Amino acid sequence: METIDAVVIGAGVVGLAVAARLARPDNNVVVLERHPRHGLETSSRNSEVLHAGLYYPPGSLKARLCVAGRGRIYEIGRRHGVFCRRTGKLLVACAAEEVAKLESLLAQGQANGVAGLEMVGPSDIPGLAPGVRAVAGLWSPETGIVDSEELMRHFLAQAQDSGAIFLWNSELVAVERKAGHYLLKINGMADPILARCVINAAGLTSDRVAALAGMDTAAAGYRLHWFKGEYFNLRRTLPIQPLVYPVPATHSLGIHLTIDRQGRHRLGPNAFAVSSLDYDIDLGLRRSFHEAASRYLPELKLEDLTPGTAGIRPKLSSDGSFRDFVIAEESARGWPGWVNLIGIESPGLTASPAIADYAANLLEWPA
Ligand SMILES: Cc1cc2nc3c(=O)[nH]c(=O)nc-3n(C[C@H](O)[C@H](O)[C@H](O)COP(=O)(O)OP(=O)(O)OC[C@H]3O[C@@H](n4cnc5c(N)ncnc54)[C@H](O)[C@@H]3O)c2cc1C
After folding, report:
1. pLDDT in tens, 247-258
2. Does the CB atom of residue 47 touch ligand 1 within 6 A?
3. Residues 159, 112 share a domain
4. CA of 44 to the centre of ligand 1 (A)
5. 109 lines ligand 1 (CB under 6 A)
């Protein structure tokens, strides 16, 4: 049986970026994806925002990989035509007691190396975001948007051009150890695959994939909690180009206003715990979305909101406390050559190329 140098589990944006980083003509890299194509789960169900890096404690992987990944994606956009745009983002304080939160995000963002951040007053806001009402704002010029499907197709093409093989409709269902390697059993495939290295980029089920390998995910702190986020689209176009965010909520960044490459606006996402992969939109939430956004968009009408999409976050924390990405080569636990990527919630899209580099370095993979 041929030994594969590296098998990546999952073809979301992170697995694709990892495959693009690892694949070379002189090695063999295989990607297993349970769906018939890439990006059918969280990577196509998000806000498509390139985060600046304000929300994460200095020194954390989230902070470092967000800042590094954002720069890499703008560069990919410039060199390879993947759509991205620095829209800028205005965080708004709608009441005096929220201003201190903006100031702490300013300090944290500066500590994370985010350029250009500045506090703005109410008189600056109409020039930045017409129609937005706030007592103060934090302006982040480096925040932007990306076309996530184009980014994924870029990583897919880069990986395939370097020789990576993608096995679609291929769910990893069992893992055995064999002579220091990993024997991977795939649903519906008679012959298993023998892998020297495994990169677990299985998103919402990355904890279950680690458990398939025999790891005690509860003891390791790897158990995931799913938090759904729904969106409502806006029927009419607003004269607002930057993204507009309230101060963050416990489990999410708050109901914010984003814009896509066609100039269409949407509101969301909310955040609540779920136990199944159900992407339906609760129409009964329209009023609460309207109320949340009306705090900073006073002209917004209830009829402007139409149901949009939903995504599910793979969170390591269920109580809103900070947990960093798990990006770990598991030799110390007895699984050499096995890299877990667990809890890759936001800013996982922004950080994706930097996550791939970080994982490759853990494996001491050649550049
Ligand atoms: C509502 C919401 C908004 C967000 N907004 C942003 C944002 O604006 N900016 C940002 O940077 N990030 C954002 N994120 C986070 C971002 O979307 C994720 O961090 C990122 O998409 C994770 O990518 P992934 O490849 O790890 O996971 P996924 O896209 O979920 O991919 C994992 C893949 O693994 C496959 N898989 C799972 N198990 C197996 C198995 N056993 N065998 C084979 N295949 C398997 C799945 O089918 C899936 O295709 C948001 C997330 C949500 C939910």
Report:
1. 988 878 899 999
2. yes
3. no
4. 8
5. no
